[in-house]
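Catalogue entry: protein

Sequence with per-residue tokens
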Amino acid sequence: MRFPTLTFLLALCCGLANGCSEGVTRRTVPAVLSVKGDVVFGMVEQNKFQPVTRESRIQEGSIVRTSDGALLDLGLIAPALAQMSSNSEIKVEELRISKDGNQTRGGMRGRSARIQLSRGKITVLVSGRDQNRTQFAISTPAVRVTLDSDCLFRVQRDDRTTRVTCVRGKVYAAAAAQPPIAIGAGYFQRWPSTRPEPVAATEDAAAQIDITDSLGIENELLELDAGGRDRRPL
């Protein structure tokens, strides 16, 4: 009788160990921190859009649009905050978190966010980031922006160009099949461009405005985040 009992206990322990080691990945939604003006979201396939409110649950695959004069502040995934400027459109391609399977609190394994900017401007603040556990990317038809450190940056796209301006930290921008370039604080890059290296913002009036605006937005996002932290995704 002893051998079957030992076998059962060994199998049970192995099962529990595997359960502890397996991670659970689930989708999450951004927290709506503030809405100003006419902002809508929905699925293109359904051709049904509804106003964004503080209670809205913007799922993966959703298109978000701001009208003229409108602004939207979002808590994407901890620790990423963003403001969509007016006349902008994004697609929430992915917002996911991974946790230890047996953990109800803590046990965070990783977070990932992918946003597509179709037009307009989005300003992003990432602070207190765990570099090993958070993956973040913003893409446009021309360029894909990633990061490996805390930073403050802006991505802007119109019918002709894409511009990435880094205010704090460092971001990496990859266009087409070209290797990514590093854009440090106080620099920007525009696509298409005849200059392969990032340009100092002091050489461009629009980039200087980007930096000034982004610093003001940073303060707004931090205040909103502090006031609505219990509403933010993990």
